[in-house]
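Weekly sync, protein design subgroup
Attendees: M.S., D.O., the rotation student, P.L. (late)

Item 1: inverse folding check
M.S. brought a backbone from last month's batch and wanted to see whether the design step gives back something sensible before we order anything. D.O. pointed out we never logged the input encoding, so this time it goes straight into the notes. Structure tokens as presented (188 positions):
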């Protein structure tokens, strides 16, 4: 079951992105046909072409695609927590919420902070999903898409390199700040 749950993460991004594009296509997509047949909308919706909706769809895609990795990290950490602590909490009469708040969450803060740092860096550098789904149109243009557009679409290598250096500087500053201040609190 875990292997099936990890499918969105391990599937090739091109195959998954085009599956989503076909599923949500405004002319022949199953999602639009279902919405029209159920009477939820009168006409087809361009999920990846309208400005606020495209950003929402890309965000949902990113969550769907990359949550399994985070879940696997969290599950591994949860399984490594000593069960004696929970037995002692049961003996003391702790509620499930208290066991989560005072036992589980402090044990998970280290892995959650590492996941936050990694996901922030990976999301900040995200290019392929956004480019395949929307091409950077409809309000989804990010700095990495801008690097591609500048350097390769209009052949302005200098401007593309400048934006890439800005991205690197931002990530370096954030990582330094995170590792210097936040990781001390988490014991990393």
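Designed sequence read out in the meeting:
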């Amino acid at each position: 079951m875990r292997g099936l749950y990890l499918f969105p993460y391990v599937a090739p991004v091109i195959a998954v992105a085009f599956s989503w594009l076909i599923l949500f296509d405004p002319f022949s997509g199953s999602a639009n046909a279902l919405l029209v047949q159920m009477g939820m909308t009168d006409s087809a919706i361009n999920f990846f072409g309208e400005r606020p909706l495209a950003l929402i769809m890309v965000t949902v895609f990113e969550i769907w695609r990359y949550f399994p990795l985070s879940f696997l990290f969290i599950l591994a950490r949860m399984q490594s927590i000593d069960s004696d602590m929970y037995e002692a909490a049961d003996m003391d009469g702790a509620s499930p919420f208290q066991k989560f708040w005072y036992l589980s969450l402090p044990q998970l803060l280290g892995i959650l902070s590492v996941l936050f740092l990694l996901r922030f860096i990976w999301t900040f550098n995200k290019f392929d999903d956004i480019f395949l789904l929307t091409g950077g149109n409809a309000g989804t243009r990010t700095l990495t898409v801008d690097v591609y557009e500048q350097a390769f679409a209009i052949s302005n290598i200098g401007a593309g390199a400048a934006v890439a250096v800005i991205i690197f500087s931002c990530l370096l500053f954030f990582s330094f700040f995170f590792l210097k201040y936040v990781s001390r609190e988490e014991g990393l």
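Discussion: The chain has a mean pLDDT of 89. Residues 55 and 140 are 6 Å apart (CA to CA).
Action: P.L. to compare against the previous round before Friday.
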